[in-house]
Amino acid sequence: MLTKELIRVRRQKGRVLPQFLSPKDAAALDSASQLLLLYRACAGRSRGELEEEAAMICNAAPAPLVARGFDRILLQRTTFRKDASKELEELRSRCFAAAARLHRGGLPATEEELRAAVLATDPDLQEFLQGDLYRDLPENEVAESLDDISEEHLLQRYNISLVQGLLLSAGRLQIEIMEPEPAQLRRLFKYLRFFRLMALVTAGPKGADAGHLLLEVDGPASLFDSAQKYGVQLASFFPALVDLHSWRLRAEITHAKKPGALLIDERDGLVGFYRHFGAHVPEEIKVFHASFKERSKTWEITSGSHLQMHDGEIIFPDLSFAFEGKIRHLELFHRWHAQPLLRRLEQLSREPETGLLIGVERTLLKDPSVAAALAAHPSYHQAGFEFRDFPGVPTVLNLLNRG
Question: Which CATH class, in words, describes the domain spanning 282-402?
Answer without folding.
Answer: alpha beta
